[in-house]
Design goal:
With 129 residues, the protein is an alpha+beta fold. The chain has helices spanning 7-28, 40-44, 47-60, 100-113, and strands spanning 32-37, 66-71, 83-86, 93-95, 121-123. Strands 2-1-3-4-5 form a five-stranded mixed beta sheet, covered by helices on one side. Helix 3 crosses helix 4. The longest helix has 22 residues, at 7-28. Bound molecules: FE2/S2 (inorganic) cluster. The site of FE2/S2 (inorganic) cluster (FES) has 7 residues, from loops.
């Protein structure tokens, strides 16, 4: 890695990084992001099946604006498998005990129709991650 030799060079790098962040932010604002907790506790509770079911449903319904992401510890071991939905302009919603059947329900109701699955929500009032 080469070293930075002037203030102008540093400012140029800063602008490039900022542009990249702005671009990513505007992309994030158009997409729904679904996160599945895949720490050991999540996997032990069946998070792999949950993840694969979500992936199949997204694929089957040809949803182009939905990202599915594996994440690590989400801090709710007792409610695994955990699925978090971040939709543009809405507070993040955290669902607990999401088996394959409930994963299909999340896609069909929350993602497709914007309806929250009230009985499955464990939190929806925290800052977005
Ligand atoms: S280790 Fe289970 S949620 Fe963190």
């Amino acid at each position: 890695m080469s070293s930075i030799k002037s203030l102008e060079e540093l400012q140029k790098i800063r602008e490039e990084v900022q542009q990249g962040m702005d671009l990513r932010k505007s992309e994030d604002e158009k997409h729904i992001k679904i996160m599945v907790g895949m720490a050991t506790c999540g996997i032990a509770a069946g998070a792999r099946d949950t993840f694969n079911t979500l992936l199949e449903e997204i694929d089957k319904r040809k949803m182009k604006n939905v990202y599915l992401v594996q994440v690590g510890c989400m801090g709710y071991c007792h409610d695994e498998p955990i699925v978090q939905v971040n939709a543009p302009g809405a507070s993040p919603v955290l669902y607990g005990h999401i088996n394959q059947e409930k994963a299909i329900e999340i896609i069909g109701k929350h993602i497709e129709k914007g309806e929250l699955l009230q009985d499955l929500i464990i939190s929806k009032s925290f800052d977005r991650v």
